[in-house]
Design brief:
The complex is a heterotrimer of chains A (about 475), B (about 100) and C (about 375). Chain A is α/β, with parallel strands linked by helices and about 475 residues long. Chain A contains 18 helices and 23 strands. Chain B is mainly β. In chain B, about 5% of the residues lie in helices and about 30% in strands. A five-stranded mixed beta sheet of chain B has the order 3-2-8-6-7, covered by helices on one side. In chain B, strands 5-4-9 form a three-stranded mixed beta sheet, with no helix packed on it. The relative contact order of chain B is 0.24. Chains in contact: A-B, A-C, B-C. At the B-C interface, loops of B face loops of C. Strand 23 (about 455) of chain A pairs antiparallel with strand 15 (about 295-305) of chain C, so a sheet runs across the interface.
């Protein structure tokens, strides 16, 4: 997609060029609204369709058919009239819909009448002993390397965790000729029973046949160790082995050159929370999700959230949500066009309902176990400041009530990742230690910049009289 | 470790801590380092612990390297360029006056 | 379910924490009551300076009180470190207030001259650019000069906060987080504090609740006319040490991050971040130290300082309800030493020293001289 020069004002600003953002920008662009699609990556697709417009892997069987749906979304967006702005990092968003974005090392402030956040999801933190060792990465990271750079894991490769992505990636690795030493499945045995009531919906969903085919392709060719109850990465300076325990085996160890972890994905909340969007704890998905209306509007007027950033729904549902949020934006800005959109919106909602069927089953089947969400002892929780679980537990016994006070007690959450790698762990750890629900504990108070920006870039923004007066000047 | 698929052959050269390393146009710096067998990108300023890339999507901030003299750059977010000088980091970033 | 204590301190920030630690050391049974996780917390806005220069214009006793605290800080830090094992990283290399133009330097010098005429117990020098550059090689070409005071220093405010809380609990104090005080009643010789989780009873009560003091003070016959004043802070990534002296609005922490602060706005109770203000702060920081232009900002936040009408502390014991005290200031780090080692013992003994009378709230009722 060709990139454009940035303007100061847009009718609609879409943030994130994954499936939700691409679909939203397409609808807005086709409706004739001045539309910007910002994305921090050099190419469109977000994470699930990462590098779809530039992957070195030709249309073949390694990545699977679903990946190539992204190419269609990109083509539609390229033809829609929306302005695509890659390499654009959004670092702030205010309630008044002013967007701070950094492009080619220069900061700009943009205004928009409507904002659609489509910042998607990231991997759930997986705090096990040794998870900070070089050679321990997320399965999503390895998948991104495969898509964007044509790199395949080699050596003694161990996959560990739970969730559809883990199995999908296993198949992609096998299709690429990689050898996987083992897949350590951490889904607790009890998950099956809990998922069973939701099986009928799943059987009727689009996921069933695909899932079945996936498991059939992978299981016979892989050493799978089930009901893994404890995991640790070991090594000096890099991962060298993975120690684990299952319900049957007290202790076992596999040599590893690469350990790829995955236990589901969770919404990227930083920009939305910094903008003041209200979030609540979702017990089914074990994460914070924004409070949304059926039109995907948030608690901040003019800001909507579509896609996995609003709660994990998957790529296809994300695209439909992008369309729904975009239809709402078009209705708000060009009410005369509203009638013409009714049919398309109804179809998007029908498709969304279809793509949501069966997700509850997946959520329950692949629900990560508590011991992998709530770290203990010397396991590092805050990777940036190297704060261990025991230090957090100690702070709670000293009276620390929540994640924001915790920063004062331990520096936990004060590093450059701004709590992305530790936030959920901290909330659940404090909740468990205090015996209250995670929703009552809350999350880090997030503020801009949500991505690093240099002092010089900030300095280069126009300040205005009031701001200049406010700053020290005796 | 990681190896390159045939579709993804290296086409240009960068230096890593002074040594020449082959990379592919379109790779991120992180991908190029990983393909060259480098897993350790830095030692943390907090305890000196070895770290390397974890998320490959710009949220973990563990893949920080110095690129062409500018420190603390997220290697997974920067595309390689021919002749680029990449350095692994030890401790806190030093900015020259 | 009522609980009984000698003293209840309301507010667990740097002011309440220092008082509570000092009181617990004076043999009192102390309870420290704090709000929940998302409270206004002026303590978060602190810049960790132990700062003397420029303070007390119009109130000589404040200049003296501030200097006294700075002088007491090393022993205070040592005592806390000894008790808790936490090093507060207090350093006193002397501090600078930079001027980014000749006229700024002139105005600063004029103000300090007026202050000098009050005979404060500390020295401040005006330094020309060349001398500043010798001590701070990284300054930019816009720096015209600075005022320098050898008594200025800085500490690690988070460690101070942790140490006060840890020391307080080691001394037998009881810390109750998530215990917002709704009302206080004076009954006979005791105070009854109503909280959602039950009543707390104490022989004395010390209001150290920052902006919350405005609401609580009248309940015990006191007045704390404080208002919020917003300040922003930016912090950069950890950098190799290059700045060994603190500035009034910029310092490098022990971990290596550079803190940039000290905007002042009347923004009501809005403690959200205003991008234009941080942009203006960033611009001044880059003029002061050009190398900062390339540093990444990893965090910014805004906090509400607790401002009295004249900017000076309010210390007072209630006449109507003896045993109730109000303590509020906007320099909780600088004054932590005297709060813990001077004010706390006086509160325990039941009377504030005469020299502190000048900080009573009655001063706000005196009509200004024409």
């Amino acid at each position: 997609m060709p990139a454009r020069a940035v303007q100061e004002y847009y009718d609609v600003a879409v943030i994130g060029a994954g499936p939700a953002g691409l679909a939203a920008a397409t609808v807005c662009g086709r409706a004739g609204l001045a539309t910007a699609l910002f994305d921090e990556q050099p190419g469109p697709g977000g994470q699930i369709y990462r590098a779809v417009a530039g992957t070195p892997l030709k249309r073949d069987t390694i990545l699977g058919a679903d990946y190539w749906r992204g190419a269609r979304l990109v083509e539609d967006c390229a033809m829609s009239g929306a302005h695509y702005l890659p390499d654009a990092t959004v670092w702030s968003l205010t309630r008044e819909r002013e967007i701070g974005v950094s492009i080619a090392g220069a900061a700009h402030m943009i205004r928009a009448r409507r904002v659609i956040l489509a910042t998607g999801a990231m991997e759930r933190p997986f705090p096990i002993p040794g998870w900070t060792l070089p050679g321990v990465m997320t399965a999503g990271a390895a998948q991104a390397l495969l898509k964007s750079a044509g790199l395949v894991p080699s050596g003694r490769v161990v996959l560990a965790g739970t969730g559809p992505l883990l199995w999908l990636f296993a198949r992609q690795c096998l299709a690429a000729g990689a050898e996987i030493a083992a897949l350590l499945d951490t889904a607790p045995r009890a998950n099956r029973m809990r998922a069973l009531p939701h099986a009928p919906s799943f059987l009727a969903s689009n996921y069933f046949r695909k899932g079945l085919a996936l498991l059939r392709a992978v299981r016979p060719r892989l050493r799978v160790i089930r009901h893994v109850a404890a995991l640790a990465a070991e090594g000096s300076g890099r991962v060298e082995a993975v120690r684990f325990r299952t319900v049957r085996v007290a202790a076992d160890r596999i040599g590893a050159d690469l350990l790829l972890l995955h236990q589901g994905v969770v919404p990227n909340v930083n920009l939305a929370m910094a903008a003041g969007v209200e979030h609540v704890w979702d017990h089914a998905q074990l994460c914070f999700v924004p409070v949304l209306t059926p039109d995907l509007a948030t608690s901040v007027e003019g800001i909507a959230i579509a896609g996995d950033g609003g709660g994990i729904v998957g790529a296809e549902a994300s695209a439909e949500q992008g369309r729904i949020a975009a239809f709402a934006a078009v209705r708000a800005i060009k009410p005369a066009d509203a009638a013409g959109l009714i049919g398309a919106e109804a179809e998007a909602r029908r498709n969304l309902a279809r793509w949501r069927r069966g997700r509850r089953f997946l959520e329950k089947l692949y629900r990560p176990a508590a011991q992998f969400r709530i770290a203990e002892g010397d396991t590092i929780v805050c990777r940036c400041e190297e704060v261990k679980a025991r230090e957090i537990a100690e702070a709670v016994t000293l009276g620390c009530a929540g994640p924001n006070q915790l920063k004062a007690f331990t520096r936990c959450g004060m590093g450059p990742c701004q709590g992305r790698m530790c936030g959920l762990t901290v909330t659940e750890l404090i909740a468990a230690a205090r015996g209250v629900a995670p929703g009552d504990i809350g999350y880090y108070r997030l503020r801009p910049p949500v991505k690093p920006i240099t002092v010089g870039e900030l300095a280069g923004l126009p300040a205005g009289d009031a701001a200049t007066k406010a700053v020290a000047r005796d | 470790m990681f190896r390159r698929l045939p579709d993804a052959a290296a086409t240009l050269t960068v230096t890593v801590d002074g040594e020449p390393v082959a990379a592919r146009a379109g790779d991120t710096v992180a991908a190029a380092l990983l393909a060259a067998g480098k897993l350790r990108f830095r030692d943390t300023p907090v305890t000196g612990a070895a770290r390397g890339p974890y998320c490959m999507m710009g949220v973990c901030f563990d893949c920080l390297v110095a690129i062409d003299g500018v420190g603390n750059r997220q290697a997974c977010m920067v595309p390689v360029a021919n002749g680029m000088a990449i350095e692994t980091q030890t401790g806190a970033r030093k900015i020259e006056r | 379910m009522a609980e009984d204590y000698d003293i209840a301190v309301v507010g667990g920030g740097l002011v309440g924490g220092a008082l509570a630690w000092g009181l617990a050391g004076a043999g009192q049974r102390v309870v420290l009551l704090d709000e929940g996780d998302v409270a206004l917390r002026a303590a978060r806005g602190n810049f960790a300076l132990v700062w003397v220069q420029g303070k007390g214009l119009g109130l000589p006793d404040y200049a003296a009180w501030t200097a006294r605290s700075a002088v007491a800080w090393p022993d205070f830090a040592a005592a806390l470190a000894f008790e808790t094992g936490i090093d507060l990283r207090y350093r006193r290399p002397g501090g600078f207030h930079l001027a980014l133009s000749e006229s700024e330097l002139e105005r600063r010098a004029a103000m300090l001259q007026r202050l000098h005429n009050q005979a404060p117990p500390y020295q401040v020098q005006i330094l020309a650019r060349a001398e500043v550059a010798r001590m701070l090689p990284a300054i930019g070409p816009d720096v015209a000069g600075a005022s320098f005071c050898p008594l200025d220093g800085h500490a690690d405010a988070l460690r101070l906060f942790r140490a006060l809380h840890a020391g307080f609990q080691r001394r037998g104090g009881r810390y109750l987080a998530d215990r917002a005080v709704e009302a206080i009643e004076h009954r006979g010789r005791e105070f009854r504090l109503a909280t959602r989780q039950g009543e707390i009873r104490a022989g004395k009560v010390v209001l150290a609740a920052g902006l919350g003091n405005a609401r609580l003070a009248p309940m015990v016959g006191l007045s704390a006319p404080v208002r919020p004043q917003r300040g922003h802070i930016l912090v950069t990534e950890r950098l190799a040490p290059f700045l060994h002296h603190p500035m009034a609005t910029l310092r490098q922490t022990g971990e290596g991050g550079v803190m940039i602060g000290d905007s002042q706005e009347e923004a009501g109770f809005d403690n959200g971040v205003a991008t234009r203000v941080v942009s203006a702060m960033a611009a001044r920081a880059v003029r002061a130290f050009p190398l900062l232009a390339r540093a990444n900002v990893v965090r910014s936040w805004a906090a509400l300082r607790v401002m009295s009408p004249d900017g000076f502390p309010i210390y007072e014991q209630s006449a109507a309800c003896p045993g109730a005290f109000v303590v509020t200031c906007h320099s909780g780090v600088t004054l932590a030493a005297v709060h813990a080692t001077v004010l706390a013992p006086e509160i325990a003994a039941g009377a504030l020293a005469g020299e502190l009378r000048v900080f009573g709230a009655k001063r706000f009722n005196v009509p200004q001289a024409a």
